[in-house]
Amino acid sequence: MSPDTSHTPSDAPGIQYLNLDPGLYIRPEVFQEERALIFSRSWQFMGPVSDVAESGQYLAIDIAGIPVFAIRGRDGTLRGFKNVCRHRGAKLLADGTGKCGLIVCPYHKWSFADTGRLVQAPWYGKDPAIIPEDWPLEPVHLAEWRGLLFAAIEPVESLEDQLGDLPQELADEPVESYRATDTATVSFDANWKVYTDNFVEGYHIPGTHPAFFAAIDFEAFATTAHKGFVKMTAPPKDGLFYRGKWLWMWPNWTLSLFEGGMNVSRINPTSPHRTDQHYRFFFADTSEAGAAARAKSVEGTLSVVREDYEVCTETHRNYAAGAYSPGPLSGRHEKGVQYFQERVARALGL
User: Fold this and answer.
1) Domain Rieske: where (predicted)?
2) Could you tell me which residues are beta bridge partners of residue 332?
């Protein structure tokens, strides 16, 4: 953040906060620091626990380029590992869900048990012989919250501490009653922070989302920052599939409520200049009769975010070209941007 505001309380009156230095969005070394200091140290949303309910079921994801997976063991225990063979670093399992007995590397056929133990290294030789106990898969931490599964590589706090006040915010929502249905991954050419800046404010809605703007009472749109998350609310008008509450959680996941459901997404950078957003959709009514309503929520969500990607891509290009210097943040609408950027700056030691 701007040097003259870095130590000022976020609720101090009369302070003009500035947008984050655009160089922090485009420099490769910053991306490496974020991978080490933000993504490796935080809890990352993987998906519903139901994806790994049965023995042998696994769920594999990428965390800012670091592949990990969770697998349900034959003993019923859910374990997490880096999705990397201990031999020469090949990827073991494709991203997504599946089921397996042994975890077999496609490169040289090394095989691992669901406990991470090396079972065999065929054709390796005996001079010297491999010692299986020396080469287990590298573990990662797993935690569950209300039916959602999270992974952390080197967490600096518990999942509960990272969530902050979110459990209280969603205490009355029947999250566990929703069943996972649809998935979607969308990719765009912009830094993950450009998109997050966009997500945590509603100031852009009149210009970027005209149909969405017409479907809410924008004058009543409110953005508030809380411990661990940013909340945006607006009274919806008839016909809007959203219920009027959108949440973003540190450092990179979102949750938006429908009538009888929700979507959860993870904003995952693959480089300083490209981001994947992974969506999971959850509904209480998974019947055939409810298919049209579910499709409306899914397609409505993706339609809105595609409009965001277009403006985010153009913004990122301006940052990369050196055409932009930090401008002022709105005290009315961009407190979420300020909160997010302060968290990033603090994590990077700026």
Assistant:
1) 43-151
2) none
Q: Which amino acid is at 24?
A: L
User: How buried is residue 53: exposed, middle or buried, by Cβ count under 10 Å (0-12/13-18/19+)?
Assistant: exposed
**Helix (H/G/I), strand (E/B), else coil: 214:** helix
Q: What is the CATH number of domain 3-41+160-347?
A: 3.90.380.10
Indicate if 44-152 has the same CATH topology as 3-41+160-347. no
Given this model, what pLDDT does residue 74 score? 97
What residues contact residue 131 under an 8 Å CB cut-off, 6+ apart? none
Encode pLDDT of 23-79 as tens digits.
999 999 999 999 999 999 999 999 999 999 999 999 999 999 999 999 999 999 999
- For residues 112 and 91, what is the distance between their CA atoms, to the nearest angstrom? 13
Distances (CA, A) of 97 to 48, 110, 185, 200: 11, 21, 14, 30
- Do the beta carbons of residue 307 and residue 209 sit within 8 Å? yes
pLDDT at 8 over 60: no
Summarised one tens digit per residue, pLDDT across range 174-197 is 999 999 999 999 999 999 999 999
Angle (deg, nearest 10), helices 291-320 and 192-199: 120
Question: Is the CATH code 3.40.50.2000 the one for domain 44-152?
Answer: no
Domain residue ranges in the chain:
3-41+160-347, 44-152
Tokens encoding 115? 């406990």
Distance CA 130, CA 63 (A): 30
